[in-house]
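ENTRY TYPE: protein
CONTENTS: sequence, structure tokens:
***
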Amino acid sequence: MPRTPHRTARRPLRKALVALFAALAPLLAATFLTAPAASAAPPPEPPSLAQAAPDAGAARDAKAEAAPRAALTQITGFGQNPSNLQMYLYVPNNVARKPAVVVAVHYCTGSGPAMYSGTEYASLADRYGFIVVYPSVTRSSKCFDVASPQALRRGGGSDPVGIKSMVDWTVRTYNADTSRIFATGISSGAMMTNVLLGVYPDVFAAGAAFAGVPFACFATTNGSEWNSECAGGRIIRSPQAWGDLVRGAYPGYNGPRPRMQLWHGTQDDVLRYPNFGEEIKQWTNVRGVGQTPSSTDSPQNGWTRTRYGGTGDRAPVEGISMQGVGHNVYAWGMGQRVLTFFGITGQ
């Protein structure tokens, strides 16, 4: 008895819905028949080369991320190593057949593994196929020797000899391109970058130093690792005098000299800002180019970039001054600019 009213009530409703659908069917059919076909839409414009480049890079990055990341490896027995440095190596899974080599040199209190995890060079190696060498100090200060007479002459001993052995081992083992060996570093590593390019101009094609000092500015003869006069920016020399210090590290060498990229913050309170100008004086003299910039621009807000002896991405000397920035000048993303200066990116 309770269900009979519901059944009788549904019949009129069903009839009404059937009638409504019959009325709408012709309108729906007309809509689908008159809609434009998908192929009638205009094709998108082909991207320009400038637009296509980031897409290609994104595809490479996606491919690198999809593959398992290679591991940072410690290498022992790599060759002559008078100061007992440790060698860490990153070889990407897609390493090039004749790869470039980047030596990434850590700051005081740092280490090779800290430089590996704190900079983007390993992920950039995944993208571009180069090898990264991470030297690591074992002495208590965890600072590189950029002050002793042994460090400041070719074959004199100390840290530069050990780092050169790391490079030689990598070249032999991976058939690396000896024309594309580079060095970059932060603070103590930036000072070592200056030293490496001065002592081994026949090994390194270019360097990038973040918050460093000129070659031999930190020189001491009393065994101290620290030079307050240099750190304070109080050692001022002529371009010729600075250049002579570099040339004196490898007497008789007349071959090509490395290019140099220099970064410094105007508020650096550890290695004072005047060192930036002294580095520019030194490396422009070493490269035999004028002290007047060939070009000046601002690639980012607060940055002033000056190029000497050329105006392109691979000028002989490039300086980037960062207004209001302190000693911690390195930031994620700068590694890509370093590689562009080195010429590894191919751009």
